[in-house]
Amino acid sequence: GAGVQVTVAEALDRVLTTVDPPLSDLVEAEVRRHTELLLRSTVVALEPGAEGLTCVLRGPDGERRIEVDAVVLAVGVRPDSTLLVQAGARHQKGALLVEDTMRTGLPDVWAAGDCVAHHHLVLDGPAWVPLGPAANKTGRVAGTVAAGGRARFAGIVGTAVVKVFDLDVARTGLTQAEAGPEALVTDVVHRSRAKYYPGGHPMTVRLVHEPGGRLLGGQLAGREGVAKRIDVLATALHARLGVGELAELDLSYAPPFAPVYDPILIAAQRALRTRAPA
Amino acid sequence: GAGVQVTVAEALDRVLTTVDPPLSDLVEAEVRRHTELLLRSTVVALEPGAEGLTCVLRGPDGERRIEVDAVVLAVGVRPDSTLLVQAGARHQKGALLVEDTMRTGLPDVWAAGDCVAHHHLVLDGPAWVPLGPAANKTGRVAGTVAAGGRARFAGIVGTAVVKVFDLDVARTGLTQAEAGPEALVTDVVHRSRAKYYPGGHPMTVRLVHEPGGRLLGGQLAGREGVAKRIDVLATALHARLGVGELAELDLSYAPPFAPVYDPILIAAQRALRTRAPA
After folding, report:
1. What is the DSSP string of A48-74?
2. What are the E-state strand segments in chain B?
3. Cα torsion for B189, B194, B197, B203, to the nearest 10°?
4. pLDDT of B221-265, one tens digit each?
């Protein structure tokens, strides 16, 4: 982008593993439109180069050296909870396990933010999903309770959105990978606007649901209208709506913003007819 | 717009009366940015003019004649139900009252679409809101049931969105005017994107709610992210969430799409502290 030549080295065999492959395939195509993408590749060394740096990459085709001006490392995150874990706080792979008041169980110690496992409303158990909104909310709860007030954190459903060049990708609830083999998936591609209204784009919707209709999660990808559409599914998860109730929602319609049946309604209607593979 | 000079004559004293005045004021300003807007004004005659038509307008300042190339009339809609009303079908001001199977009560006669009063889930009674999505859904129900199948229409919450030049305006549930004097309103203006991310716009949110916290409706206006954000409130109305539960939703956050606390969450947090005027 912007005239800068970019090479992306991804250690895994696909990009954005927080969504299922049909969606991450779209992300991969979008990344390849703007950069050179190397999968199953890692940076093994950075050396002084002729003008900038020499980046040594190792991938399925062996080693490769490229001259670069700058290297941006994104190597993931991990809860920095050693202090409390050593003091005896309960944790799950380093993510602190707290009450809904953010109490750690240690006397007069509260924990909040990205080092905490939040109560996941779909899993009905703790999950480590270190994202800004819950970090903010749990900080407020911890502060309120520590100061003698009353507050509790309601929990998360695992909602996230990211802009990858011109593609917006969002998820909430459980992916197929997270929901396990019993879960059903329903995929649709529908228009983001009325057919005759200019400027629309295809929108990909995946719903993850139980054979009995319970909604477990959803994923969206498209060039517009993704970020706040995922919030309809997030709200449905909070309210424990099934795909039948999802199909009945009175969602907004006007030609610049949606087809008369919103892509979410189309997906929910389809999900009602999705059967487990024989 | 597009170099065409437009005069809008509105018979009422404000535009878009389907939203409350704080929102319709924003719409009025947007209409005035692009057209000459005349309120409390009606077209009383169209006469042949020198080159096109002469449009005779009557307003608070008396009569005015303007030369125009074309006149677009938007005079509202009314259910065309005379046939069934004369046959004895139940109706409310012409809008047909039907069961959730779209049966009219007349033998072997179903009715669907804009001539029908739909079950309004917030009012828990019939309401005439003639919009496309419910017209489509009720047509499917009537067709399925008439053909011997099983289907029912779940009802509406009165969701609508409209694009007025560059301003998007949406509503769901009840407006303050519709909810009556006991209802509380909470108004906030918040950013559509993270503060530091370019291209954001102010977003106006109005929540209409009961003193006990029950959500009755919502309205949004802004230059982006309105249409599908209203659907979060529509989903909340379907699920009968209160403003406390609304404030707890795990909504999507990324700087291009929302602040870390979405404007809906900010409004819901504020609504929890809104008290009836003394």
Report:
1. E-SSSEEEEEEETTEEEEEEES-----
2. 7-9, 36-38, 42-48, 53-59, 62-68, 91-92, 95-97, 116-120, 125-127, 160-164, 167-173, 184-191, 202-209, 215-222
3. -20
4. 999 999 999 999 999 999 999 999 999 999 999 999 999 999 999
- Helix (H) or strand (E) holding A118, with range, is strand A116-120
B92 lies within 8 A of chain A by CB: no
Q: Measured at the alpha carbon of residue A133, what is the angle toward residues A129 and A138, in degrees to the nearest 5?
A: 80
Closest-CA residue of B relative to A160 is B252
What residues 154-173 of chain B have any CB closer than 8 A to a CB of chain A? 154-163, 168, 170, 172
Examine the pLDDT at B1 and tell me if it is beyond 60.
no
Kindly give the pairing relationship between strand B95-97 and strand B91-92.
antiparallel
pLDDT band with cut points at 50, 70 and 90 for residue A278: low
- CB B49: neighbour CB atoms within 10 A? 14
Measured at the CA of B9, the angle between CA B206 and CA B81, to 5 degrees, comes to 75
Interface predicted TM-score (ipTM) of this complex, two decimals = 0.96
Residue A160 has which token pair?
Answer: 């996230």
SS3 assignment, position B136: helix
- Interface check for A272 against chain B (CB to CB < 8 A): the answer is no
Tokens describing residue A74: 């994104």
If one counts every other C-beta atom within 10 angstroms of the C-beta of residue B6, the result is 14
Cβ atoms of B204 and B22 within 8 Å: the answer is yes
Q: Are A229 and B228 in contact (CB under 8 A)?
A: yes
* Cβ(B190)–Cβ(B259) below 8 Å: yes
Domains of chain A plus CATH, in order, are 7-68 (3.50.50.60), 96-156 (3.50.50.60), 160-271 (3.50.50.60)
- Say whether A235 and B249 touch across the interface (CB within 8 A): yes
